[in-house]
């Protein structure tokens, strides 16, 4: 594990693509498959990034000279930035400090963090590292409901006691996707890495029928929302009908996500469906988005389409692998700097001023 801590000497990464290249170059095939692979032919994996690139910004000029503010309101509180780290399993595979490094870096930069239920560090340790940081972002806990309401109930209350401010329930992955890369390069067991939030009943290698029998139903999610001591956001929404159901059942937020293209291939890119989801909820709850965000301009486009905030996954993993907490901080700092530059160049003074008038459609030449 120590080799990946050695810095490259040929250059210094100046963008997220450089961080990805550095990480890819030094990861073994099995780890590369886990971090960079997707489901099936990886069509959705590639489409996620391309969809943001296909959108055009439409700047206004001579609109002011002050540094744009990144502050935004979400779930009744004001936060420093509209960015959070997406939940990612077992970050101890990438660096010994794992989720602790991510939490420390993110909180120092005012970026939120969604801790994965499959983390290698306990939620209490991450909260202890993060909670007292001045001007930090939100700290949320991600949950899979695995058919055991008692277990979910205990985790929800454990998160609340630890200081987490919301729960993100992943609803799009009752089973693992068909991931060809991971089947070609199976990962050996990671000795010494624990998953302190996973029930013992969740053994690897269970058959499809068993997994589906244990998967969450709508009744389970409704129960979870009603019994949770924390606000509940549903992650993995792609269809407007599901977004409307989320509103009706009392969810307090939606995260438009296709699981980074890792579960079901050929589903739409998140940038494509985001405007539909925003329109379908009629402002009843905040909509967030993840998937393929690699530039500050991507974040600005997401905000212009109505997202309240964005989540970033793989780039953070690259920074973690390359240089631990320092690498994560560098990745996030690059995104924040790019976002502020894009806002300034588009004539936007703060996040609240971002509207769909910042987007240009080449085909219709009209406002989106």
In terms of topology, how is this protein built?
Elements lengths: L15 H11 L2 H8 L6 H11 L2 E2 L14 E3 L2 E3 L3 E3 L12 H11 L3 E4 L7 H8 L8 E5 L5 H14 L3 E5 L9 H5 L23 H7 L3 H10 L4 E6 L2 H9 L4 E4 L13 H12 L5 E4 L5 H9 L4 E4 L1 H32 L13 E2 L8
Parallel strand pairs: 4-5, 4-11, 5-6, 6-7, 7-8, 8-9, 9-10, 10-11
Antiparallel strand pairs: 1-12, 2-3
Strand order of the largest sheet: 4-5-6-7-8-9-10-11
Number of domains: 1
Order of helices and strands: HHHEEEEHEHEHEHHHEHEHEHEHE
- Proportion in helices: 25-40%
Low confidence ranges: 1-6
CATH class: Alpha Beta
What's the number of extended β-strand segments? Answer: 12
Percent strand equals 5-15%
| Shape by Cα distribution | globular
Report the span from N to C terminus.
48 Å
* SSE class: alpha/beta
Helical element count? Answer: 13
Radius of gyration using CA atoms only: 20 Å
